[in-house]
Model the fold of this input.
Amino acid sequence: MSTLAGKRPRQAAVDARRHIGQVVLFLVVLAVLWGLWEGYRALWIHEHWTWPFTVDDTTMPHLHDIVAALWGRASPGGVGPRLGTVLFKSALFTAKEAAVGFALGAIGGFALGAVLAHFKVLQRGVLPWVVASQTVPILVVAPMVVVWANPKLPNGLKDWGAVALISAYLTFFPVTVNTLRGLNAADRRGLELMRSYAAGRWRVLWKLRLPTALPYIFAALKISATASVVGAIIGELPSSISSGLGAQIINFSQYYTTEPRGLWATNLVAAALGISFFLVIVVAEKLIVRRAPEYLV
Amino acid sequence: MSVVALERVTKKFDQTTALQDIDLSIEEREFVSLIGPSGCGKSTLLRIVGDLITPTDGTVVVNGKTAKQARIDRDYGIVFQDAVLYDWRTVAKNVALPLEIAGWPRQKRAERVRAMLELVELTGFGEHRPWQLSGGMQQRVSIARALSFDPALLLMDEPFGALDEMTRERMNMELLRIWEASGSTIVFVTHSIAEAVFVSSRVIVMSPRPGRISDEIVIDLPQPRTAATREDPRFFELVTRVREALHLGHEVDRAAATEATPA
Done:
């Protein structure tokens, strides 16, 4: 036992060093991306190259200008609140839609995957339709969902509730497919072992199939987390919601030729939102999934 | 009463006959090895005893019941070639798995796990993860798990096949010590002649196509077996005896194959 206790401080030091390493790596990658953007920009402007497009302050603003725009005023006239504040509020609104949509999609997707894994006949009958559901463009589905769902939604959920449903629609598919795959991934010997203990269906599901499926499910959740943000932004467009990032994108794309930095800044905020959703899942995975290193990516 | 009694057990997979008319009776506290070349059906036979596979024909009685009832009553523990530990569980939790399924209370489970880890000499490794242990240690965890609910019968399917020779010999000694201490009956599948002779009280020699019992050799080496046993002239005699029985089985197989070939 003493050897185990003695190992912990060293382990903590190793962990700390690895975390510092990750932060440094992140900064290096950020600097490289910055350098590529500015380098490309400078080269194309200097050489007057026009392929694939002419580079100037409108098509590719300086990155520091884009970031600086977040501190400037939102309206072109130089009045009103800061752009950063406006976009942050919009992002929070979109985050609410995406989070609810993600939760609905993840739970629904898991439930569907679990049911399909249990009933092979259903699997053959239903899975093609699940796949087909994802080939329908979300831009076609979104207005329909708003028209169908909105009248039924209570006042507190009006509009944004419909957007959450659209977001859920983009979320559930990877979760269903990977749940199905994961629940069937238990190895033959592991199953024989359970059979030798005369373990029932639910026991096998809870003690073997589900733990085996968790890395698969989390791989899907990482995809879905970012997809749910995209789903929420797209869902906002036909539902005439003005409080989210979708409305900001429409707004700033109209002003693009005169003030390109607004749209770029919105892009930046939308990407940051997607990344934070992704990171939440990464942290949750670290806390929940306890597998041998080769199962963790 | 026999712990295992097989009568005219036959198993067919599609066109091939994996096992043909197996008659075998194993008494309490026996250590019986099944040996034979790959494809002789020795693993299939072990799985039939454990009701993991159902035979096409014949009767299987385990502990005086049908194989299925014996499985439901958890009359046997099984050890595979790979340890088959669940990597999301700690070593202690792996040993506790069958106890959880059998519905043992937490306190009793913990006591039992401690005793089992002591039996396989892994005290202090309970909180480790399976992948932090060596192959031999993992296999010892798997033996502790199989014995944790004190089954009358231990089924082992080439348990040390994946280990190096040195570890394997040490594990053989360990297993004999555990066999002594636990008082269980063991059915042991192997393809190592020396291993079969060293650990067993009886060796069943099998031959392939179709899988059948071709010979049976009582190992009359004195108990308990020690490192000196491996240098006993009688040990070499018995090893030779098993080897010849295996080759004879092979000769018959080849003769049958020649006969079957159209001229």
